[in-house]
Specification:
The complex is a heterotetramer of chains A (about 180), B (about 700), C (about 270) and D (about 80). Helices cover about 25% and strands about 20% of the residues of chain A. By secondary structure, chain A is of the alpha+beta class. Chain A has one domain (about 5-165): Alpha-Beta Plaits (2-Layer Sandwich), CATH 3.30.70. Chain C is mostly helical and about 270 residues long. Chain D is mainly alpha-helical and about 80 residues long. The chains are: A alpha+beta (about 180), B alpha/beta (about 700), C mainly alpha (about 270), D mainly alpha (about 80). Chains in contact: A-B, A-C, A-D, C-D. The interface of A and D includes residues 6, 67 and 102 of A.
């Protein structure tokens, strides 16, 4: 059972929302509300302004809180790919899953049931990119097995520390 | 399992067929792939063989809607006496237009036809029909509203109209008023720049507004609007003073370095002087100048932020001069003088058939001999007063000057005064509503195109029709063919399918036609430092920092910083109006798009929170923005990213839109506020020479 | 084992089964959600504390979402009408029933409080229950018809068991009332029961041993009702308990937006 | 451990309390210590036992067993 998931690089994302629309176009038949959402934030006063953009759909967590919080046990985890998906026939749209999801991924669909990113189930995992990853002009979204993604985030950090004089600690690699 | 391309895998999943195409939303023409299944476009993405790989920007991916949009133009229309557009047949439309064109040519000469287009590759047919056969010299793109100054500055410095950027190998990138991460999305360049930055490339952005690119930059210089020229000259002063330019390169390849240095030093363009004007500390200017001179390879480029001011042309000439004197030109990681692929014209027209126009292009008569494109904002005055010579026929193809040019009232008068006005578009745009004939064009999914794309090296895109044209719309080449037959030039347009002229176009490409058709794109080899082999096509055979072309035409050969034409905010009009673009929209075609209108439906005036507090206005309130010329009511958006004293308004919205169920009635048309101001040399529209006052509505 | 003994043992067993279901499908989950939200706040390293774990929902969204059900209205007016009938019918009859049993059957053991048992209140209660019962029955019949006939076209899900169960409950409710009225023709409030009254007079025509049938029908009604309540938390009807909590806290997706902002701010 | 024994005992005691009250309420309708009342008592006892068995044994909250904070940090790290 290999766990797949998304890796999102905030330094590359410019908040253009192409991933949102690509997800809508690819899942047109089953999607009534946007599964992937980009948040663009700016803080501070001119000219000391800091901005960041984050494109978040489901992170397909290993021990997904939404799966445990659902009173109808409608959310299940795919064994091979680790993709967390919702079963529409069981879901009643009570949105307890959204209350517990740390990333705010579940969306309330127009059909009265919860809809969420299905990690592009149709697309063979590990063979081709997900719809949002394929469209992202900056290639800020990367999908793959967790080991690959963590290795990648370490490589990016190492590569950055090699030339960046300021030894800024990169998120999550404190213990290395 | 053979190494299946991702196309085949997706076709396997969805049972679709892949048809290579091209995206027609913005000037970048990214090669694309359309996935078609029984007459419907299921999915679109970038072409995996092209430089942008499978990526596409938000406007591109959402343009799938225009292949199914029921609000598109579906049949030819003619405006009746009551001013209402009625449906007419193709035959009647083409016969009447051809008759009128012949009558106008006999009476006023071929020069009285002006044909404006945005960027469609099928303009080759316009050039051949209206240019070679009909004989009009006034065929022009939308350069005046876009990058006219940049093209002229590049022509005068490198004798190349359109330098592009090789970010992948660059170590230092400085962008003046350009926002590739924001509205002017340049697909593969964005990815290359970000990957280069990950490898340590420095990004410096000069922009009064905290744009998306400024967000990612290492250094952001929040300059006062319109004063980029002073900063560029100050950097040049620093580099020339410390002699940190590339001496060997300059001796061999640069003309006029001595005059340039003497000019910069004697006129006192010191960083201290620039600090007062631009508001950027002189230490920062010196640090940036030294870092630019020291890091190789580096590149500097500027775009919309500069060209919207009358000082823009000289600023860009200085920026390009800085590239040249530090030897950063046409090498890996520099500005690349793009090499075009050997594309021919689609039709063979023998020399003697072509009619040579007697009168010069209208731009000469208007006093802008060096203007690369016709200054469309001065066209209304020229038409109404028959200024250089009478213009009786206007032909618009996929461009909407009624919406995008300043001083809309004058434009409306022109459209009423002119004898024949024809618009070819896929939507009933504002220009179409004002013109007599409206011909529906097939969208990019329903027509073929052979075109050069904007990758640094030679790259040809062969787009093919994926679905049948909607309603009675026709591809542009069919319209031109119909018109040509009615005008008696049918002999040259004797082809039955688009493949015939596509083969003649791509005859000289080294790739076989079948392979190009299957892949959809051909990429030649990106050659660096082409001047070593091919030389520099300027009159002096060198890159010209002292421009002989300008000298001949009586303009100042060296870039200066004069603000005599600048319109500065004053007491009763305290705000500088900046005409900007939105990241999620690009012109008329995205206005009726449900995906984009869901993200941002209407335009807004963006002002700094301090100004909003002073005006006692909150986010979302309606305010009245008034320039000495006109006024408009629009919603406010307070933001920390905008410089106090500046009001940013995205153009391209509103005008009491009537053409689409989603676009109808949304947005505010801001262009009437801008006066008709042109850059004295290039004739480019200086939108931002405009001061406004904002009051609570 | 007379009627009342059976009734009370039924209530005890049904109530406990209901509580067991509520434990597994609601109580456990709410405890977990509260715990995970606190965990996120402590170890998530979110520098931003702005977002509380259980924001106070604004009433406007609740009214729009729960009472007006804008989402179903967007889909189709018929589905919206059907849901409103069932929603208001069920809540009304449930509330009135509680009032009636508490004030009617229970209080008079302690103090002579006859307002609801024989006073003017009885009439209101009676008419109210009849009305809401009728509304509920109409809604449920519409749901049954719709589920069988239109299910594929409307892409809704066909599970008849629940709707059928509630339908039987309502039907037997009217039958019991009708039988009681047959037994007591001179009931002072017969004019208030505008459904059961005519039904009773109609049934009186058919010469079945109505008096003998009264108790079994009453028992059947009681059994089916308690079965419905007991099965509720295990079935799709758990959304009667869970949806008000979940939907009002997550405010039609707004809570998700706040959480995404919190994650993004953590990246600043 | 999200669901402590303390919570389970609290919930179970509430269930038992309700049962006791219902039995007391039944005394108003069913004369105590008559045959019917005995049935009520048996029903109460059975359901109480069933409830306790269910709460402490059947409804294993294994699926909600300790949420491992390390995996949670893992997911956070993937937003680099």
């Amino acid at each position: 059972m290999s766990q797949y998931g998304f890796y999102f690089d905030k330094e590359k994302c410019v908040g253009c929302r192409a991933c949102e629309v690509a997800c809508q176009v690819w899942n047109e038949a089953v999607q009534t509300v946007k599964w992937r959402n980009v948040t663009c934030l700016t803080r501070g006063t001119y000219p000391e302004v800091a901005g960041v953009n984050a494109s978040l759909a489901c992170m397909h967590c290993a021990e997904s809180p939404c799966k445990k919080a659902c009173p109808r046990t409608a959310i299940s985890k795919n064994e091979e790919t680790g993709a967390v998906t919702v079963d529409r026939t069981r879901c009643v749209g009570c949105m307890l899953c959204l209350w517990t999801c740390p990333f705010g991924a579940p969306q309330m669909g127009e059909m009265g049931r919860m809809e969420k990113c299905t990690f592009c189930e149709e697309r063979p995992v590990g063979v081709i990119k997900r719809a949002c990853e394929e469209i992202c002009p900056q290639q800020a979204i990367v999908s793959g097995t967790i080991e690959e993604l963590i290795l990648r985030s370490k490589q990016v950090a190492a590569e950055r520390l090699s030339w960046d004089a300021r030894t800024e600690v990169v998120l999550g690699h404190e213990e290395e | 399992m053979s190494q299946q391309t991702t196309r085949e895998i997706i076709n396997g999943i969805r049972g679709t067929k892949t048809v290579p195409g091209v995206c027609m939303i913005c000037p970048w023409h990214c090669p694309t792939e359309n996935f078609v299944k029984d007459g419907r476009i299921e999915y679109v993405r970038g072409n995996e063989y092209a430089a942008n790989r499978t990526t596409r920007c938000v406007k591109g991916i959402s343009s799938i809607h225009s292949s199914r949009d029921k609000d598109r133009l579906l049949y030819p229309m003619k405006r009746n006496s009551a001013g209402v557009h009625e449906r007419i047949s193709w035959d009647q439309a083409l016969t009447e237009i051809a008759g009128r064109l012949k009558k106008i040519k006999d009476e006023f000469g071929p020069e009285s036809l002006v044909s404006l287009f945005h960027l469609d590759s099928n303009e080759m047919f316009t050039h051949q029909l209206f240019g070679h056969l009909y004989g009009s010299p006034n065929l022009s793109g939308h350069g005046a509203a876009c990058d006219q100054d940049r093209r002229l500055a590049a022509l005068s410095t490198f004798a190349h109209p359109l330098p592009v950027k090789d970010y992948a190998n660059s170590r230092f990138v400085m962008l003046w008023g350009a926002d590739p991460f924001g509205p002017n999305e340049a697909l593969h360049e964005n990815r290359e720049l970000l990957e280069a930055m990950k490898r340590g490339c420095r990004l410096i952005v000069v922009d009064p507004n905290r744009s998306r690119t400024a967000e990612k930059a290492h250094i952001w210089l929040p300059i006062k609007p319109g004063t980029d020229g002073a900063l560029a000259l100050a950097i040049a002063h620093r580099i020339v003073e410390t002699q940190s330019y590339d001496k060997s390169f300059c001796d061999e390849w640069v003309h006029g370095l001595a005059e340039f240095s003497e000019h910069v030093l004697s006129n006192g363009y010191t960083p201290q002087w620039a600090e007062g004007i631009t508001g950027i500390a002189k230490e920062t200017i010196i640090a940036v100048a030294d870092e630019f001179a020291a890091t190789k390879p580096a590149l500097m480029d500027g775009l919309k932020g500069l060209v919207n001011y009358t000082t823009g042309l000289d600023a860009l000439r200085t920026v390009f001069a800085l590239n040249v004197i530090t030897g950063n030109i046409d090498g890996p990681g520099n500005l690349i003088l793009k090499e075009m692929s050997p594309l021919g014209f689609p039709l063979e027209i023998p020399e003697e058939e072509a009619t040579i126009p007697e009168k010069p292009p209208i731009a000469y008569g208007m006093g802008y001999p060096l203007a690369p494109d016709l200054p469309t904002q001065l066209l209304p005055k020229a038409v109404l007063e028959d200024d250089p010579y009478p213009v009786k026929a206007l032909f618009f193809h996929v461009c909407n000057p009624a919406m995008s040019d300043p001083n809309t009232r004058l434009f409306e008068k022109m459209m009423a005064a002119v004898e024949l006005s024809v618009t070819v578009d896929i939507y009933m745009s504002e220009t179409a509503q004002l013109s007599e004939y409206v011909l529906p064009e097939a969208s990019t999914y329903e027509r073929a195109e052979v075109r050069e794309s904007m990758w640094a090296g030679p790259q040809t895109v062969l787009a093919q029709p994926a679905i049948a044209p909607l309603g009675e719309s026709r591809p542009y080449y069919e319209i031109i063919k119909g018109l040509a037959e009615k005008m008696g030039y049918g002999a040259y347009f004797a082809w039955d399918s688009w493949e015939d002229w596509a083969r003649t176009c791509t005859a000289y490409l080294p790739v076989p036609y079948e392979e190009l058709k299957e892949k959809g794109v051909w990429e030649g080899e990106l050659r660096y430092r082409k001047y070593n082999t091919d030389g520099v096509p300027t009159s002096t055979g060198k890159f010209e920092v002292y421009s002989t072309m300008f000298e001949e035409m009586g303009y100042h050969p060296l870039p200066v910083f004069n603000e005599e034409h600048r319109v500065k905010p004053d007491a009763d009009y305290p705000f500088q109006l900046v005409n900007c673009k939105m990241q999620y929209h690009c012109g008329t075609h995205t206005q009726n798009n449900p995906y984009l209108m869901a993200i941002v439906g209407e335009n807004y005036v963006e002002i700094n929170s301090l100004d909003a507090a002073r005006l006692d206005v909150r986010e979302g309130d309606l305010v009245e923005v008034a320039s000495p010329h006109a006024r408009a009511t629009i919603r406010v958006r307070t933001s920390e990213a905008v410089q106090p004293g500046v009001a940013r308004v995205p153009h391209g919205h509103g005008f009491g839109r009537r053409f689409g169920s989603i676009a109808r009635g949304r947005g505010t048309h801001i262009n009437p506020l801008f006066e008709t101001r042109a850059n004295p040399v290039s004739g480019g529209i200086s939108f931002n020479e405009c001061k406004v006052k904002i009051t609570k509505a | 084992m007379d009627k009342f003994a059976y009734f009370w043992s039924l209530i005890i067993v049904g109530g406990t089964v209901f509580l067991m279901g509520a434990y597994r499908n609601v109580f456990l989950k709410l405890c977990f959600i509260r715990w995970i939200n606190r965990k996120i706040r402590e170890e998530g390293g979110a520098k931003v504390e702005r977002l509380e774990n259980t924001p106070i929902p604004e009433p406007a969204t609740i009214v729009r979402e729960a009472v007006f059900q804008k989402r179903i209205r967007n889909r189709s007016v018929f589905l919206w009408l059907r849901h409103c009938l069932i929603f208001f019918g069920f809540t009304a009859i449930f509330a009135l029933d509680c009032i009636y049993t508490v004030f009617g059957h229970y209080f008079h053991h302690y103090f002579d409080y006859t307002y609801f048992t024989s006073g003017a209140g009885r009439a209101f209660l009676k008419a109210g229950m009849e009305l809401s019962g009728a509304v509920l029955l109409v809604g449920l019949t519409a749901a049954l018809v719709h589920r069988v006939v239109y299910a594929e076209r409307e892409r809704t899900l066909v599970n008849l068991n629940l709707v059928l169960l509630l339908w039987v409950v309502t039907l037997t409710g009217f039958l019991t009332e009708a039988c009681r009225l047959i037994g007591e023709p001179d009931d002072p409030f017969v004019d208030c029961s505008f459904v059961a009254g005519p039904l009773a007079s109609a049934l009186r025509g058919i010469d079945a041993p109505w008096h003998a049938l009264a108790t079994p029908i009453w028992i059947l009604h009681a059994t089916v009702t308690v079965a419905f309540f007991a099965y509720l938390p295990f079935s799709r009807f758990v959304h009667i308990i869970a949806a008000p909590i979940g939907r009002s806290i997550t405010q039609d997706g707004n809570y998700g937006r706040l959480k995404r902002e919190r994650v993004t701010e953590g990246l600043l | 451990m999200p669901i402590t024994n303390k919570m389970k005992i609290a919930y179970a005691s509430v269930v038992l309390l309700i049962q006791v009250y219902l039995v007391y309420a039944a005394t108003l309708y069913v004369t105590p210590w008559s045959a019917g009342f005995l049935c009520v008592l048996v029903a109460a006892a059975a359901s109480a036992a069933g409830a306790l068995y269910y709460i402490f044994v059947v409804a294993r909250d294994n699926e909600i067993v300790a949420y491992n904070p390390q995996t949670f940090l893992e997911e956070r790290r993937r937003i680099g």
